[in-house]
């Protein structure tokens, strides 16, 4: 059974992606950092449904822990055929109010983690001449968001990483693509007020916010054989919003 590793998969988009890829026949490695209870719940639901899932604790912003994560996934499941770089954290506030620690945390989880994990995945995938990396960016990485300057910069970096790695790894048969969500109903957007969320829904041509499964199905599209000639692309999942 082929393995898919999803970072930050204990809830939200990551959890939905784990469930979606499991339905395609992949064993799923569910990475988490702090919510072991949620990670176990996702894995148990997959296993009860006839799938195969395991949970793996690691802080993917730290290269040493990323190396250990991949070693454990290889030992307990198999070398990942798919890597989904989904782990992310939010910060809403003015740039001048951010501490050095705030900035470092944003850059570590939202950008460096994708770089570290992609490096480990490439080392495993290149000898096999096959593999898929899907990065989860954000519409804010495309257009920028006031009061989310560093987050926007990191997600723009994820898009750049996607395009560059697609060229670098393409000759080895490895595809690298990106899903760019709009406003999705997840815990990450829990800081926004109901009024703010309603305004964003009204500004979306489809007149609703997205949900985690909308994004997960886009990731699954890249995992299907139908997309075997698609690489270096950014797929917006945003309901048509152009804020």
Number of helices: 8
- Largest sheet descriptor: 7 strands, parallel
Task: Give me the side-by-side strand order of the main sheet.
Answer: 3-2-1-4-5-6-7
Report strand %. Answer: 15-25%
* H/E element order: EHEHEHEHEHHEHHE
Which CATH-level-2 architecture?
3-Layer(aba) Sandwich
Q: Mind telling me the CATH class? A: Alpha Beta
- Radius of gyration over alpha carbons? 17 Å
Query: What is the residue-mean pLDDT, rounded to a whole number?
Result: 95
CATH topology: Rossmann fold
Count of beta strands? 7
Low-confidence stretches: none
* Shape verdict: globular
Helix content: 40-55%
The domain tally reads: 1
By CATH, the superfamily comes out as NAD(P)-binding Rossmann-like Domain
Distance between the termini: 42 Å
Structural class: alpha/beta
């Amino acid at each position: 059974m082929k393995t898919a590793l999803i970072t930050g998969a204990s809830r939200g988009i990551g959890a939905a992606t784990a469930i979606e890829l499991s339905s395609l026949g992949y064993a799923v490695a569910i990475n988490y950092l702090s919510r072991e209870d949620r990670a176990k719940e996702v894995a148990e639901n997959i296993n009860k449904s006839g799938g195969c899932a395991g949970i793996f604790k690691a802080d993917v912003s730290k290269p040493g822990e990323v190396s250990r994560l991949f070693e454990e996934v290889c030992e307990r499941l198999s070398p990942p055929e798919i890597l989904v770089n989904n782990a992310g954290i939010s910060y809403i506030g003015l740039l001048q109010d951010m501490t050095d620690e705030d900035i470092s945390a944003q850059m570590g989880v939202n950008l460096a983690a994708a770089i570290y994990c992609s490096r480990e995945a490439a080392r495993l995938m290149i000898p096999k001449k096959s593999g898929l990396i899907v990065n989860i960016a954000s519409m804010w990485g495309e257009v920028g968001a006031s009061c989310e300057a560093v987050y926007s910069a990191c997600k723009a970096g994820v898009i750049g990483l996607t395009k560059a790695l697609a060229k670098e790894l393409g000759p080895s048969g490895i595809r690298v693509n990106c899903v760019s969500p709009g406003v999705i109903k997840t815990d990450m957007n829990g800081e926004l007020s109901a009024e703010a969320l309603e305004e964003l829904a009204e500004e979306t041509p489809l007149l609703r916010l997205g949900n985690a499964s909308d994004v997960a199905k886009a990731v699954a599209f890249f995992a299907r054989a139908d997309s075997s000639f698609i690489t270096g692309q950014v797929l917006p999942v945003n309901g048509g919003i152009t804020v």
